[in-house]
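Q: I'm a student working through a structural biology exercise. My instructor gave each of us a protein and asked us to get a predicted structure, then write a short paragraph describing it. Mine is Iron(III) transport system ATP-binding protein. I'm not confident about reading structure output yet, so if you can add a plain explanation after the tokens, that would really help. Here is the sequence I was given:
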Amino acid sequence: MNKLLSVSNLTKSFDDHGPVVDEISFEVYEDEIFALLGPSGCGKTTSLRLISGFERADHGKVEVEGEVLETPGEHVAPQDRGIGFVFQDYALFPHLSVLENVAFGLNHIPEHKRHVYAEEVLCRTGMGDYKDRNPSELSGGQQQRVALARAIAPKPKLVLLDEPFSNLDAMLRDTMRKEVRDILKKAGMSALLVTHDQEEALSFADRIAVMNDGKIEQIGTPEEVYYKPKTKFVANFLGRTNLFYTDANGSQEVSTNLGPVNLNNEDATGRVLCSIRPEHLTLEEVENEDLQKVGTVVEREFKGHDITYHVQLHGQKYLVHTDNRIIFEPNDAVVIKPLEPAVVLES
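A: Happy to help. First, here is the predicted structure for Iron(III) transport system ATP-binding protein. I'll explain a few features afterward.
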């Protein structure tokens, strides 16, 4: 794949309390949807503003297709970067119609053709029938499609999406994620999404950079960052997990409260912190088991399609996800069995 966006050692501070964005580096490839995922205040939106040109970098470099857009000594204006932007509040012009909103930034197209082209883009986003309406007459999902149409109409090299689904209700949010992803993929456009929503990043992006306290802790596919987290923060932030310490000796199998557990890194030695997702554990009835390995169900969360059990074992609580064919009640004695190796965390 060809590299589209390159961010190298990007750093930004606003005061003396240290950098908000701290030496972050990543790349976005052609036709790729990339996500910056992290909690509020981790620096992800500031990173987006540095890439778009709304903020100046203290250190580092931003390049698009090999062209330098940002260094401490060089700054290309936002309107000259060839980048589209979808804001969290959509930022549509209330006094313009839907069609006029989309046509507004088409300065590279002869004036008499702008509305024709803008209507074509609106049709691609499913909003062609609403071209004469004002933004105030649209629902949140419709406003979002118009904002996306306006962002992609000038055929930008890259589209930046700043928490674009956060103002929508849960059901519409799921629908719009799929629709926006389909629109971007069909248009062959690369996109950079900023979000604090783990499910949103996992379902929307091709790759994810997990940010914490201004730094990137891990970059990988959704499956990699979820199932193979590198740090305790990534393991916890991407979803519920079970953390435990054990002593590794360079073999794949280690001894734990759960009994023998395989590790994903057989080279690990010494005291290590491990993570195993609740869906990688299951529960069994007690049958001739060592009583040292028997736990007690202390809570059950029924979710329709599955059940989460809270199991107490040797003073530690473990979470176990099962389908609804495995039924235990609070106070039942159970044995926890790993289905997959535990992941050894680096920090």
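A: Here are two points you could use in your paragraph. The mean pLDDT is 91. The domain at 240-344 is CATH 2.40.50.140 (OB fold (Dihydrolipoamide Acetyltransferase, E2P)). It's a good idea to check both against the output above yourself.
Q: Great, thank you!
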